[in-house]
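Work Package 4 report. The design task specified in the project plan requires that, given a folded chain encoded as structure tokens, an amino acid be chosen for each position. We show below one input record used in the internal validation round.
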């Protein structure tokens, strides 16, 4: 007698085969996007005020993940070193000590002696030059001239915990970096979390892609679209 019972396994295989044929391009595109974001480049959101005035809450910055190393996707394992992080670079950090992603500026590279006195930096025995660009009741915007990389920073004018304004002297260990937020009196950085290992550097950021103003109903800050980061 011939069984009329349908071949359930065959029907399932046939349905899966049709599903794959119809959607294989989508899954290939999805995998390509995930790989690109993990290993090549991504966007990172700025939350908080620790990098003011350089970066604002609501900025979305471009992250070049091939700036320093080629890494195995989804890991911190480096396959090849492409270049060394430099003093002045704005970097995205996957900090194990902080337990979150940080965005800071590299101030000290391996071998540097770092000393801070009332927010004034001394690097390898040379005092950093400062110029006041803007002042209001709450803060000063200053030009901080790191060697070969001047950039803006912000310091508070009112009463603050001045213990965080001084640090060191200390020598940056091999394969580690000393980082600070540009908003010196409102940043948890190497003064709190110590040195940053190279493998925790996700990448370097050199531009804002777009920006939404969290203080103004998340309206776009059009003047910040594709703005460079100094």
């Amino acid at each position: 007698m011939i069984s009329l019972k349908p071949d359930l396994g065959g029907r399932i295989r046939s349905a899966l085969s049709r599903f794959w044929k119809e959607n294989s391009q989508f899954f290939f595109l999805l995998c390509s996007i995930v790989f690109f974001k993990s290993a090549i480049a991504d966007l990172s959101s700025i939350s908080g005020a620790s990098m003011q005035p350089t970066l604002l809450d609501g900025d979305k910055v471009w992250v070049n993940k091939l700036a320093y190393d080629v890494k195995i996707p989804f890991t911190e394992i480096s396959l090849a070193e492409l270049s060394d992080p430099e003093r002045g670079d704005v970097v995205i950090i996957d900090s194990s000590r902080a337990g979150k992603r940080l965005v800071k500026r590299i101030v000290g590279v391996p071998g540097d002696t770092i000393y801070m006195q009332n927010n004034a930096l001394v690097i390898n025995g040379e005092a950093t030059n400062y110029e006041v660009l803007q002042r209001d009741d709450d803060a000063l915007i200053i030009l901080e001239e790191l060697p070969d990389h001047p950039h803006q920073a912000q310091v508070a004018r009112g009463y603050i915990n001045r213990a965080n304004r001084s640090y060191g002297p200390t020598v940056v260990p091999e394969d580690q970096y000393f980082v600070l937020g540009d908003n010196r009196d409102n940043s948890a950085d190497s003064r709190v979390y110590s040195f940053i290992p190279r493998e925790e550097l996700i990448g370097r950021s050199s531009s804002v892609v777009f920006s939404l103003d969290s203080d103004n109903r998340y309206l776009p800050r059009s003047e910040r679209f594709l703005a460079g980061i100094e």
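The radius of gyration is 24 Å. Validation will be extended to a larger panel in the next phase.
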